[in-house]
């Protein structure tokens, strides 16, 4: 049995008290893949109606993430998902594109937060003041919920891209480094969804 701590609403409670309003959690998915967008989720949880089992998306199975996604959306005070495309990643670099996806996620929320808890230590410029939290998806329930929405939304989009570009196996590896992905790049070259400034893709193009 694991003795690790599970995320709570302690950070949200403190930030809400100091900021005087609703606080959202924000997290991203897809910073590392060779193809596809980077996604972000933003969630304001209702402390009186929390879906059981929320955790860092990386600690959950795909089946559990997919089951929690509609529960989070149905019970949250507000939620949003945003993307930045492969072309925007090339133009803005990955941190700029991640910040853009986070802004889009917050702007998509039906209720705007007065502050945000953001996973990691990078101070993105978002529509509201932020507090960074290293390892936040394992500490904050709101960030963990955002990580689930970001991950499931991106995975779903990569499955759709697999239908458009079936040679690359996007439904299986979601654009990340995998032997079948590398072999497909060698055989077919990059498709429009590949990040052409990414090391392996760039090396293939230059080769």
Automatic annotation (TrEMBL):
<keyword id="KW-0464">Manganese</keyword>
<comment type="function">
    <text>Endonuclease that specifically degrades the RNA of RNA-DNA hybrids.</text>
</comment>
<protein>
    <recommendedName>
        <fullName>Ribonuclease HII</fullName>
        <ecNumber>3.1.26.4</ecNumber>
    </recommendedName>
</protein>
<dbReference type="InterPro" id="IPR036397">
    <property type="entry name" value="RNaseH_sf"/>
</dbReference>
<comment type="similarity">
    <text>Belongs to the RNase HII family.</text>
</comment>
<keyword id="KW-0540">Nuclease</keyword>
<dbReference type="Pfam" id="PF01351">
    <property type="entry name" value="RNase_HII"/>
</dbReference>
<feature type="binding site">
    <location>
        <position position="119"/>
    </location>
    <ligand>
        <name>a divalent metal cation</name>
    </ligand>
</feature>
<dbReference type="InterPro" id="IPR001352">
    <property type="entry name" value="RNase_HII/HIII"/>
</dbReference>
<dbReference type="InterPro" id="IPR024567">
    <property type="entry name" value="RNase_HII/HIII_dom"/>
</dbReference>
<dbReference type="InterPro" id="IPR012337">
    <property type="entry name" value="RNaseH-like_sf"/>
</dbReference>
<feature type="binding site">
    <location>
        <position position="28"/>
    </location>
    <ligand>
        <name>a divalent metal cation</name>
    </ligand>
</feature>
<dbReference type="InterPro" id="IPR022898">
    <property type="entry name" value="RNase_HII"/>
</dbReference>
<feature type="binding site">
    <location>
        <position position="27"/>
    </location>
    <ligand>
        <name>a divalent metal cation</name>
    </ligand>
</feature>
<keyword id="KW-0255">Endonuclease</keyword>
<keyword id="KW-0479">Metal-binding</keyword>
<feature type="domain" description="RNase H type-2">
    <location>
        <begin position="21"/>
        <end position="207"/>
    </location>
</feature>
<keyword id="KW-0378">Hydrolase</keyword>
<keyword id="KW-0963">Cytoplasm</keyword>
């Amino acid at each position: 049995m694991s003795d690790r701590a599970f995320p709570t609403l302690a950070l949200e409670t403190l930030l809400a008290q100091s900021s005087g309003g609703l606080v959202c959690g924000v997290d991203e998915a897809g910073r590392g893949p060779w193809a596809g967008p980077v996604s972000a989720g933003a969630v304001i949880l209702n402390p009186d109606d929390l879906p059981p089992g929320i955790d860092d998306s990386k600690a959950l199975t795909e089946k559990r993430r997919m089951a929690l996604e509609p529960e989070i959306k149905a019970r949250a005070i507000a939620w949003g998902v945003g993307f930045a495309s492969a072309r925007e990643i090339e133009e803005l670099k990955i941190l700029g594109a991640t910040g853009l996806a986070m802004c889009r996620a917050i702007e998509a929320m039906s209720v705007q937060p007065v502050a945000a808890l953001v996973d990691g230590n990078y101070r993105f410029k978002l529509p509201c003041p932020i507090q960074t939290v290293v390892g936040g998806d394992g500490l904050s329930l709101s960030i963990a919920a955002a990580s689930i929405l970001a991950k499931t939304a991106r995975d779903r989009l990569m499955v759709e891209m697999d239908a458009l570009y079936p040679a690359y196996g996007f439904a299986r590896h979601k654009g990340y480094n995998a032997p079948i992905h590398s072999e497909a790049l060698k055989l077919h070259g990059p498709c429009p969804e590949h990040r052409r400034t990414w090391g392996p893709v760039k090396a293939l193009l230059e080769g």
